[in-house]
Amino acid sequence: MAQCLFCQIISREINATIVYEDERVVAFNDINPQGPTHVLIVPRRHIATLNDLSEDDDQMVGELVRRAALLAKSKGFSASGYRTVFNTNRDAGQTVFHIHLHLIGGRSMHWPPG
Ligand code: 5GP
Ligand code: ZN
Fold it and tell me: What global pTM score does this model have?
């Protein structure tokens, strides 16, 4: 989707600090980090929200989640802990409509979120 911000980051039309990429998944630093590490892990294929996933996407979603765990390990906070979040639509505060898994780590966090 040409006008989608994250599609433009994936295609390098917009700059971001990319920390991982493969055939299906790209991960880059959030521009407004909510912790010492804040990475967004996205599929290359444009999917607006979790509501738009199909059974065919199950493997890709697993790859997003496992990539978060691997990045947490490489950042050194897999044992101390980290937060992984998908925001969906208005009540969760989704602002970019290309699914993305937030990986936040490097500090302690509270629950429930605001
Ligand atoms: P959402 O609120 O949709 O779950 O998360 C969108 C995230 O995208 C936010 O954490 C926001 O800081 C991040 N973001 C918005 N614009 C940009 C951008 O241009 N570059 C990067 N790297 N992150 C962005
Ligand atoms: Zn997109």
Answer: 0.98
